[in-house]
Design brief:
The structure holds two protein chains of two kinds.
Chain A lengths: L2 H11 L10 E8 L2 E9 L5 E5 L7 H17 L15 H21 L1 H4 L3 H14 L5 H16 L2 H22 L5 H11 L10 E16 L7 E8 L5 E7 L12 E10 L6 E10 L4 H10 L7 H11 L7 E5 L2 E3 L4 E3 L5 E4 L5 H11 L1 E11 L5 E12 L2 E6 L2
Parallel strand pairs in A: 12-14
Antiparallel strand pairs in A: 1-2, 2-3, 4-5, 4-7, 5-6, 7-8, 9-13, 10-11, 11-12, 13-14, 14-15
Helix pairs in contact in A: 1-2, 3-5, 3-7, 6-7, 7-8
Chain B lengths: L5 H13 L7 H7 L7 H19 L30 H4 L15 H10 L2 H14 L5 H13 L6 H10 L2 H29 L13 H9 L6 H11 L8 H10 L9 H7 L5 H12 L6 H11 L3 H13 L6 H7 L5 H14 L5 H6 L7 H11 L5 H10 L3 H20 L6 H11 L11 H19 L3 H14 L5 H12 L3 H21 L1 H20 L3 H12 L8 H17 L1
Classes of the chains: A alpha+beta, B mainly alpha.
Chain lengths: 406, 587
């Protein structure tokens, strides 16, 4: 049983009796040697807000309060067992409006054609319609979709536009299915990735504890505003998985430069498209990275390009418009002029550079060897996988030097 | 994808590219297997779903490109195709274009001329080449190098000049190496402070906590800084240190204007999109001085999207520094604007964009007191001989030492550029230049011989007392010496230096003022005195600013910047100017 759903259902259930209406409940919780007050409030849109007196919206105190309510709920509703993936907190009616606006956008672009759609009045109006229906600020997934769509239309990239619009059409289908009460767990996850917000309590997030992460790349990407989102790519040294910490321009993220080593005491991990979003809550930062750390980074990098294709396809298939796969790849040789990387396994991977990056990497590669490259994965219209480098690990006299390329 | 379906997918992709509204939708409906009555919405959804599915099925399945054999790269980059606009020797050195002349092919005299009057790229390359040749130079040539480096006061190439000086023998080399050693010690201390900052033991950002001149010196040599210090700087610049205010970030950004370090490029390019005009301008100024292939595309993107006049002009100037003159016409138009800030930015941009055809318009702005200093710098960079009479006229009019110094530098740069281009300055101008050397001696009060001897005795006794730690009796004797011989500035300088060593900057300031009243030129020409004076004014300004008396601080900085500080260290001069601008902004 999902604790949040149970707590919400229990509080909302009191509405059945006209004499009693419970809007919030407060618990005094002693945990880990601290006593805090936890307030659970039922929001107007049906969502549940949990706030602890230490300012946190998650943590052991909140968890304990939710467990109490879930226990009461299960006593009152013994049949309510088993895992449930809750719907995100936007109510159904605005969602229908949003779905209609997204559908209008899809139609406007297909009518104009990708070659001509950028900057046309009807497409711009359709985008505005989507943003208006989404509310302010729009959910990060939707915001990033709009940013990518604008860039794709400006570049007249039919191939990517089809993928983005396919994702949008699935959003429309899922919202309508949800309205009709016929939604699958997968579709719910899909909706949560599009319309969920980091502060939503019912996103079904996981936590990550006591892990060492290394930031291997950082970039500003388009959200609703151009260069409106910053992404920090954090490599988990034990598993080799790369997470993304995302923050809008005006919102602070975790502190520290790129590169840095982050020892995370507690972090939230949001389900959704690759790379999975991570929000460090308790952490310490080291900015002087040792050669041992860089060795660990190199050891988890992909030694071959062979596995990248299947992973790329599966990540895109799960979230066509939202997944933005990244990869850390070991390099045996790099030719920036012909834009190709050879892995230690002997296979090759095409490189795709932003302007000036190839020259920079070429200059560096002339004086030292490139050990690995981290970057975003793309595919060409011919089906070739391409790596767009963001950073590189260089071997300078036996020591690894990090170079942020963009 | 099966080849059987390939033409169909191509047709559907073409339909999505052209749009259903552009042509007949019926064939697309047929391809998608939809009836003629199917709504456009249904067609649109089916179209993108089928196309996306087909593309995804193929994504990443094609083999990677073949790896060419080592050394097979061909030189086809954009720069190699450039033909220089200026086909003279000066216009072809280190341009990276087709007919480029590399500095290593040049003789020493030309190289030294280039150090004085080339573009930033040329000056850096020339200094590198001079440094590499030092071991093979004759004693006469080495002396010429030392003399030339003595005259270089350009903060943009401070680090490059320092590197050459360190390789020299004799006192110049020793002094430079000692300075480098001090710098290394400061870096080590800073590394420790940065470490304690990130471990949370210290809550104040360590670079902003440094005295201004130390911070400036540290960051002028950023290219030599260890990676972790640069990473820390980028964290502050991008607002990821968790403590620095926007104003702190801006101050740091100003301090790295001359850093020239490619490791800062990603952060600086990110700042170009920050939305704050002041931050964008400073980021552009810093990028202008970094020789890196990523800079030009970043600046170009920002220039094309920016509509704020001053910001766009600074971006145009930065692009000019990288050989991209797209903003030239825009900048020229702005010279006619009323707004001083806009015209000043346009003049700054013409430093890199301007050519001889701009000389007359820029020289006309020497008449405007608010723009004269920037116009002099721009004329020096343009390097056209037609500017010399206008500079001479300004020299006659002005009494401000700093302006006189700037004119002197500009004239030297122009004459060197003319020489490098194989031109000659107008004969009448040269005569005037020679005439300019004759200076009118000021009448000074006459002191009797006996008073002079007694003053000298008090002076020496005072110095002796101070040398043995008796500051108070020493200063009393120096004051007596100054009373006995009022036209003699040395006692006041000695008093000022004593106070400055004891960090009594307010008292030192008063003594320096007395000395300046008596013999300003003597102080301006002595590197030790001028260094102490500049540092003293800077430290005092920092003190009063911390006390909240910003107007007083601004006044102090204005006063010292009116002096000819060419012999003061670049870092101190730069910090004085930076701080004055910051205070002017805050006013």
């Amino acid at each position: 049983m999902n604790l949040i759903v149970a707590a919400r259902e229990l509080l909302a259930g009191f509405d059945e009796s006209p004499a009693s209406e419970v809007r919030s409940a407060t618990f005094e919780v002693s945990c880990e040697g601290r006593t805090e007050l936890v307030t659970l409030t039922l929001r107007r849109d049906g969502g549940l807000l949990a706030v602890c007196s230490d300012g946190n919206t998650a943590g052991p105190h909140v968890q304990a309060a939710l467990e109490v309510l879930a226990g009461v709920y299960e006593q009152r509703h013994p049949s309510a067992a088993g895992p449930t993936i809750p719907p995100p907190s936007v109510s159904a009616s605005p969602r229908e409006e949003l779905a209609a606006a997204v559908d209008d956008l899809l139609l406007a672009i297909v009518r104009h054609g990708v070659a001509e759609a950028y900057g046309t009045v009807s497409v711009d109006e359709a985008i505005e319609g989507v943003l208006e229906a989404a509310g302010k600020p729009p959910p990060p997934g939707l915001g990033r979709f709009i940013g990518r769509l604008r860039v794709t239309l400006a570049e007249r990239d039919v191939h990517t536009a089809a993928r983005l619009l396919d994702g949008a059409s699935r959003l429309v289908q899922n919202v309508r299915a949800e309205g009709e009460g016929e939604i699958s767990p997968e579709a719910r996850r899909h909706l949560a990735a599009w319309l969920g917000r980091p502060t939503d309590l019912d996103l079904g997030r996981e936590t990550l504890q006591e892990r060492a992460l290394v930031e291997v790349g950082r970039e500003w990407v388009a959200g609703v505003e151009r260069h409106g989102l910053q992404r920090r790519y954090l490599l988990e040294l034990a598993s080799g998985e790369i997470f993304a910490e995302e923050r809008p321009r005006a919102t602070p993220g975790s502190v520290g430069p790129c590169p840095r080593r982050l020892v995370v005491g507690l972090a939230e991990l949001h389900p959704g498209p690759a790379p999975r979003r991570l929000r460090p809550l308790q952490y310490s930062v080291e900015i002087d990275l040792t050669s041992g750390t860089w060795e660990q980074v190199a050891s988890v990098a992909a030694h071959s390009a062979e596995d990248l294709g299947p992973r790329y396809r599966s990540e895109l298939k799960a979230f066509p418009a939202l997944a933005e796969p990244v990869a850390l790849v070991r390099a045996a040789r790099v030719d920036t002029h012909h834009q190709v990387l050879m892995t230690p396994a002997g296979d090759t991977l095409a490189l795709r550079f932003e302007e000036g990056v190839a020259e920079r990497l070429g200059t560096l590669a002339a004086s030292c060897s490139v050990r690995w490259i981290f970057g975003r994965l793309h595919d060409s219209p011919e089906g070739q996988l391409q790596l767009d480098p963001m950073s590189a690990g260089l071997d300078v006299e036996g020591l690894t030097a990090f170079e942020r390329l963009r | 994808m099966s080849s059987r379906f390939e033409p169909k997918v191509q047709r559907l992709a073409a339909a999505l590219e052209a749009g259903l509204g552009a042509g007949e939708a019926a064939p697309v409906r047929d391809e998608l297997g939809l009836s003629d009555e199917a709504e456009d919405r249904v067609v649109a959804r089916s179209l993108v779903q089928i196309l996306a599915a087909c593309h995804l099925a193929e994504a990443g399945r094609a083999e990677g490109p073949p790896m060419p054999p080592p050394g097979s790269a061909e030189e086809t980059n954009e720069e190699s195709q450039l033909v220089p606009a200026d086909s003279s020797l000066l216009g072809r050195i280190e341009t990276g274009g087709r007919d480029t002349i590399v500095v290593d092919e040049l003789d020493l005299t030309t190289l030294l001329g280039l150090v004085r009057a080339g573009t930033l790229r040329q000056r850096r390359a020339a200094l590198r080449s001079v440094g590499e040749r030092l071991d093979s130079l004759s004693r006469e040539q080495a002396r010429l190098v030392v003399q030339t480096l003595e005259t270089i006061r350009d903060v943009e190439i401070d680090e490059d000049v320092a590197r050459v000086r360190e390789k020299l023998g004799g006192p110049v080399g020793r002094k430079a190496r000692a300075e480098r050693e001090r710098w290394r010690r400061a870096v080590t201390e800073l590394e420790e402070a940065i470490d304690t900052f990130w471990t949370g033991e210290q809550t104040v950002e360590p670079i902003s906590d440094l005295p201004g001149d130390e911070r400036a010196l540290l960051l002028l040599r950023a290219r030599e800084l260890p990676d972790c210090v640069v990473y820390h700087v980028t964290a502050v610049l991008e607002g990821d240190d968790g403590v620095s205010s926007r104003e702190d970030r801006r101050a740091l950004l100003e301090s790295i204007r001359y850093a020239g370090d490619a490791r800062l490029v990603p952060s600086l390019i990110a700042l170009l999109h920050s939305g704050s005009s002041a931050i964008v301008q400073e980021a552009a100024r810093a990028l202008r001085r970094i020789d890196d292939p990523r800079v030009r595309p970043g600046l170009r993107q920002a220039y094309d999207r920016n509509v704020v006049e001053v910001t766009r002009t600074v971006l145009a100037g930065a692009l000019g520094g990288h050989g991209d003159k797209r903003g030239l016409d825009y900048v020229r138009e702005l010279l006619d604007r009323e707004d001083v800030e806009v015209r000043s930015a346009a003049l700054e941009a013409l430093e890199t964009l301007g050519g001889p055809e701009d000389t007359e318009r820029v020289a006309a702005l020497l008449e405007d007191r608010r723009l004269a200093a920037q116009a002099v710098t721009t004329l020096a960079r343009i390097g056209d001989g037609r500017a010399l009479p206008a500079l001479r006229a300004l020299e006659r009019r002005t009494k401000v030492s700093a302006m006189l110094g700037a004119i002197d530098e500009a004239r030297a740069a122009i004459l060197t550029r003319l020489e490098l281009r194989g031109e000659e300055a107008d004969a009448s101008v040269e005569e005037e230049e020679a005439g300019a050397i004759q200076k009118v001696e000021e009448k000074r009060p006459v002191t009797s011989f006996g008073a002079k001897v007694r003053a000298l005795r008090y002076f020496l006794m005072g110095q002796l007392w101070i040398a043995f730690g008796g500051a108070r009796p020493g200063i009393a004797r120096l004051e007596r010496a100054a009373q006995l011989r009022p036209e003699w500035a040395r006692p006041w300088v000695a008093i000022a230096m004593t106070y400055a060593r004891r960090r009594l900057h307010a008292k030192a300031l008063a003594a320096f003022r007395r000395a300046i009243e008596i013999d300003r030129r003597m102080i301006e020409r002595n590197p030790i005195f001028v260094r102490a004076l500049a540092q003293c004014f800077l430290r005092r300004a920092e003190q009063v600013e911390r006390e909240g008396r910003r107007d007083v601080a601004r006044g102090l900085l204005g006063e010292v910047l009116d002096l000819d500080l060419r012999r003061a260290p670049s870092a101190v001069r730069f910090e004085l100017q930076r701080r004055r601008k910051a205070l002017q902004r805050a006013a």
